[in-house]
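Input chain follows. Return structure tokens only.
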Amino acid sequence: VTCISIYSGPDFDYGDGPGTALWIDNLDESAGLIQEFKEWFENPNHIKVWHNYGFDRHVMWNEGIDCQGFGGDTMHMARLQDTS
């Protein structure tokens, strides 16, 4: 896993103003930083929406993180929106 982005809605502020995303770099000198978020990813009470959840869950598992709190998969939602 090279990086992760987290968006929490238009009113949430990660420090750069409301509506911004949190970017977590996990590459090179930042390798292993993702482990600081392991508890959040494994907490089923924190609902998370993914893009391509099957792949994402697999690569997170390889990092030793058992993702919980599935709320949806935007890739599959997009297929339902436009089936052509």
